[in-house]
């Protein structure tokens, strides 16, 4: 059973239909008139009998039906019947007239599409009356490739079920519209009830009510407390049932068992959204009761175990938290799993004079999650900057798509959490050793354009920089300082962060020489000397800003007896076209507005902080402007054979099976022969040329070279046989077999691999391979599927990348290999681990010399199927 949203924000349940549901399907049909019927298939008693018979029978692989339930009533049914001996299915659906315009038909079709793809179906077919424009629009607007016949009383419709990015985008757009509609009950309520507001000052419930009263919410407010007639001037009633009106939003501050009952009572009363601040529910019967109530009554719920929610919408502002001080209205949207992080961030933003559009503490995240907020902010024009603190990802692939869409229009920031390796599983391959949880999470952020930081302090630094300055136009930075040491520290920090110290033009240097004392340094970093007056420093800064070779400036100043150049910066800033950050070593605050009460620019207490922020902004700007690179690959000859092979195998593949996997995936592997330990090498040796390499396949042997499992440059049949005996003697009963390959041409050895995470999906790892793999540990990673741009970033993401490609190696061949490995990971979700190490690359082409692969059964999940957390 799946909770999902209709277009207008109503929560419904969608589930497969079984024989016991036949009566409900018949009852739905009896409510329909002839004009209500969508398809001819349902328009006659015989058609209905066919549907009922299909549901009444045990559902087999040739039939699937799904129903949509709204407040416990079946309001829509969709099904498909697989045509005999084909990969096509006939599809039909019917929807109750009372919900005809709310997207039920589209939602049901999405569930049919998702299920059909898992079973390998290729096309949906339907017969639609020509006059039935509504259902034709449903099919056409799904986002699938769509064909319909023209002319006659009926339309023969064909929908192609192949994977298509356009379909995913269409589903996400519908999801975003529906999600925003449902969250309007949370962020723009017409009325609010506080359940559990105590009379005692200092209690959580009393603090929440006090904050609500002080926030200026214009709508009706009531309290539920059986021991009071009014609290803080707000009328109180003894129960949810006794409220004078049904509140659109309720906040609950009660002990766990009472809180669960209150959620149930809110659902029965018709409340649309609940903020559950109460703790102690998760893992208890009370928590299960809350989950059940959310499902049964279609509630949107924040929490439990949370700080609460703030919305500064000027039409309906409210504060439903127990924050000590009110938050200022602004354009920063915040979602955090940690109430403590929410409190720290609210206080820090307040110190800077910055405000929020909304702040949501999700706590134990029973329902509303970070993905919901990403969809809300996409439609909320008041939010200009999004901030996330997430300790877990329920649906990372969907998060990646949503964050990427939002980051295209406004910055998205995230605090990294769980960066340690405590969650790292024992590595059975080089790829697994490189694919730590932190690497996987960072790949997610980088590909989605998320600006990631490690601490709340760094987060505030970046927020200040984004709030008061433009994004830099590039990585070329100039440093201007009246203290030589501060300038040198700033320059060092810039280079450490990967920024480029700009080369000032001769015109700029001449202009600076005329302005500054003879002992000043007019090259970058510019040292004006401590003796210059504030207005002279300002003129020097203008000269540097006018240089076409400068994208951004760090202005580091200290006050002297001659003057304080920092006071002059406000007259220069903000420039209309370049980014400038101020640095005041020794200032009390880590970061502050240059001019109190007026942003102008961020002023940092340390050059390293300014350089770190600038580097993050440069990377974000580069992500925004990154061109889409070509990722075209020739189609596989037999993708179905590849999928079938994966379904038939499990665990670590034998060397011969691993070779077959790569062959089906069109991944280049050197010619390979495998001889089992108990067999004779004589026949194989007679057929092999020289020289060859023998590699042991032995239990527990991961590092073949270091473990003595590789014999190189073996020439002649007799020596090949003798080398085989050596390996049998060396490894004894642990030897399973020996791989024999011709010696490869000289070249650089690389690593390409896949590690599939049960939450994040497949991660593609690229790095230096062979004996360098563990010694140097130079790796980069991206989540599949890779775009051409992702592949290029992998190729350039190593510390050794510049030297690697300067050596004349075939970059294009390695790029194609990365894209082919990514395609394999997408086509074969069973691929738990793949290790191509080494991959030998020369000036013309590349080839894998060794392969390890592990396949594991997986429950096929559609990450983009519209569903709410459950």
- Total of DSSP H or I helical runs spanning 4+ residues: 27
The proportion of residues forming helix, as a percent range, comes to: 25-40%
Let me know the number of strands.
40
From the N-terminal CA to the C-terminal CA, the straight-line distance is 9 Å
β-strand amount = 15-25%
pLDDT below 50 for ≥5 consecutive residues: which ranges? Answer: 38-47, 421-427
Radius of gyration: 32 Å
Strand order of the largest sheet: 1-2-3-4-5-6-8-7
| Biggest pleated sheet | 8 strands, mixed
User: What structural class do the secondary elements suggest?
Assistant: alpha/beta
Choose one word for the global shape: flat
**What's the average pLDDT?**
90
What labels describe this entry?
single chain; 870 residues; alpha/beta; 7-stranded mixed β-sheet; 40 strands
């Amino acid at each position: 059973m799946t909770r999902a949203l209709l277009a207008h924000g109503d929560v419904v349940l969608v589930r497969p239909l079984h024989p016991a549901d036949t009566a409900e399907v018949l009852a739905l049909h009896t409510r329909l008139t002839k004009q209500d019927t969508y398809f001819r298939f349902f328009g006659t008693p015989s058609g209905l009998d066919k549907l009922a018979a299909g549901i009444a029978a045990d559902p087999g692989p040739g039939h699937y039906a799904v129903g949509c339930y709204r407040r416990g009533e079946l309001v829509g049914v969709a099904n498909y019947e697989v045509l005999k001996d084909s990969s096509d299915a006939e599809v039909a659906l019917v929807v109750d007239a009372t919900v005809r315009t709310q997207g039920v038909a589209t939602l049901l079709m999405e569930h049919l599409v998702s299920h059909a793809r898992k079973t390998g179906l290729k096309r949906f077919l339907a017969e639609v009356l020509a006059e039935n424009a509504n259902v034709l629009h449903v099919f056409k607007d799904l986002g699938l490739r769509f064909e319909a016949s023209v002319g006659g009383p009926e339309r023969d419709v064909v929908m192609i079920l192949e994977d298509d990015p356009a379909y995913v985008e269409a589903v996400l757009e519908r999801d975003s519209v529906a999600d925003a509609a449902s969250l309007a009950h949370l962020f723009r309520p017409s009325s609010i009830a506080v359940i559990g507001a105590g009379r005692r000052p200092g209690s959580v419930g009393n603090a929440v009510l006090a904050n609500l009263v002080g926030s200026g919410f214009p709508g009706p407010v009531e309290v539920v407390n059986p021991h009071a007639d009014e609290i803080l001037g707000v009328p109180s009633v003894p129960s949810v049932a006794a409220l004078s009106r049904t509140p659109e939003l309720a906040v609950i501050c009660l002990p766990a068992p009472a809180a669960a009952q209150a959620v149930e009572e809110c659902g029965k009363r018709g409340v649309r959204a609940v903020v559950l601040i109460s703790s102690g529910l998760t893992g208890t019967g009370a928590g299960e009761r809350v989950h059940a109530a959310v499902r049964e009554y279609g509630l949107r719920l924040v929490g439990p175990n949370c700080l609460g929610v703030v919305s500064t919408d000027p039409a309906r502002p409210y504060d439903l938290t127990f924050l000590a001080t009110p938050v200022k209205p602004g354009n920063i949207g915040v979602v955090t799993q940690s109430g403590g992080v929410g409190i720290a961030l609210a206080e820090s933003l307040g110190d800077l004079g910055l405000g929020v559009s909304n702040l949501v503490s999700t706590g134990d995240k029973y329902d509303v999650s970070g993905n919901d907020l990403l969809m809300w902010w996409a439609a909320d024009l008041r939010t200009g900057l999004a901030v996330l603190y997430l300790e877990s990802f329920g649906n990372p692939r969907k998060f990646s798509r949503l964050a990427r869409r939002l980051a295209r229009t406004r910055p998205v920031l995230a605090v990294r959490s769980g960066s340690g390796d405590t969650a790292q599983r024992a590595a059975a391959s080089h790829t697994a050793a490189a694919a730590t949880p932190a690497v996987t999470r960072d790949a997610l952020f980088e590909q989605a354009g998320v600006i990631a930081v490690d601490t709340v302090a760094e987060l505030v630094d970046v927020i200040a920089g984004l709030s008061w300055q433009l994004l830099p136009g590039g990585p070329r930075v100039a440093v201007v300082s009246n203290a030589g040491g501060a300038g040198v520290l700033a320059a060092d920090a810039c280079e450490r962060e990967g920024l480029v110290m700009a080369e000032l033009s001769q015109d700029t240097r001449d202009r600076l020489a005329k302005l500054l004392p003879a002992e000043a340094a007019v090259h970058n970093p510019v040292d004006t000397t401590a003796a210059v007056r504030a207005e002279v420093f300002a003129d020097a800064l203008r000269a540097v800003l006018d240089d076409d070779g400068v994208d951004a400036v760090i202005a580091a100043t200290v006050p002297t007896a001659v003057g304080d150049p920092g006071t002059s910066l406000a007259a220069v800033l903000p420039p209309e076209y370049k980014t400038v950050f101020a640095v005041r070593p020794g200032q009390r605050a880590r970061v502050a507005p240059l001019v109190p009460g007026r942003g102008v620019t961020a002023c940092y207490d340390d050059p390293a902080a300014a350089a770190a922020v600038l580097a993050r902004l440069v990377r974000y700007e580069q992500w925004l402007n990154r061109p889409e690179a070509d990722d075209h690959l020739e189609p596989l000859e037999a993708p179905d054979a590849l999928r079938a092979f994966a379904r038939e195998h499990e665990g670590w593949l034998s060397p011969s099976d691993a070779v077959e996997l790569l062959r089906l995936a069109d991944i280049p592997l050197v010619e390979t022969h495998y001889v089992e330990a108990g067999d004779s090498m004589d026949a194989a040796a007679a057929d092999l040329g020289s020289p060859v390499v023998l590699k042991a396949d032995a239990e527990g042997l991961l590092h073949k070279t270091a473990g003595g499992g590789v014999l190189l440059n073996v020439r002649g049949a007799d020596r090949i046989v003798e080398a085989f005996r050596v390996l049998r003697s060396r490894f004894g009963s642990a030897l399973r077999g020996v791989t024999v390959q011709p010696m490869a041409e000289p070249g650089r050895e690389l690593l390409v691999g896949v590690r599939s995470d049960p939450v994040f999906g497949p991660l593609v790892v690229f790095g230096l391979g062979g004996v360098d793999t563990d010694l140097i540990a130079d790796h980069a990673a991206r989540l599949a599927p890779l775009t051409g741009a992702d592949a290029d970033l992998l190729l350039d993401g190593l510390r050794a990348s510049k030297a690697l490609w300067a050596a004349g190696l075939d970059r294009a061949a390695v790029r194609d290999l990365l894209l082919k490995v990514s395609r394999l990971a997408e086509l074969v979700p069973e691929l738990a681990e793949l290790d191509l190490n080494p991959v030998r690359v020369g000036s013309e082409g590349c080839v894998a010399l060794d392969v390890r692969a592990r396949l594991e059964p997986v429950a096929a999940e559609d990450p983009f199927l519209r569903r709410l957390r459950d």
